[in-house]
Amino acid sequence: MNNFFIDPFEIAKKEGITVIPSKHLDVNGQIHKDPKTEEVIIEYDISMHPNRQRFTLAHELGHYFLGHLDDGNIHFRDPAQNFNLDNYDPYESEANKFAANLLMPKEKIDFLLHDMKMTTIEGIAQALQVSPAAITYRLKNLGYIS
After folding, report:
1. Taking the model in full, what pTM does it have?
2. How many domains is the chain built from?
3. Residue 55 sits in which domain range?
4. HEC per residue, the chain
5. Which of 15, 29, 40, 119 could link 56 by a cystine bridge, Cβ 3.0 to 4.6 Å?
6. Are 57 and 97 members of one domain?
């Protein structure tokens, strides 16, 4: 099942977005657009677990693809609380939903559950390279578990 998961780093690369790992960020990630060159830059905290790095990058890509950088907001800084399910900021909520849909698409989850007969949260999380907490939330959101 190699290459089954979605790689947000590859998506950023194909979009021409500069991605910078950082050891000195005071937030999980951030995205900004240079007002002069229009270059889009994403930075993320490299000290986080690789699954968290992937979700953070997917979240920042959400800001990009959803046009948040075009709404006059040329800079989003995302501390850990922006990834909290209780965050009701519309930009952050939309970016979280984008990230969940990108990294855990319903079609891939259905394939793992029905075709591959995966029955554990850990197995599904590992196949999609997300955290068990992320896939649990996604399965609840899709109505597969309560």
Report:
1. 0.89
2. 2
3. 1-103
4. CCCCCCCHHHHHHHCCCEEEEECCCCCCEEEEECCCCCCEEEEEECCCCHHHHHHHHHHHHHHHHCCHHHCCCCEEEECHHHHCCCCCCHHHHHHHHHHHHHHCCHHHHHHHHHHCCCCCHHHHHHHHCCCHHHHHHHHHHCCCCC
5. 29
6. yes
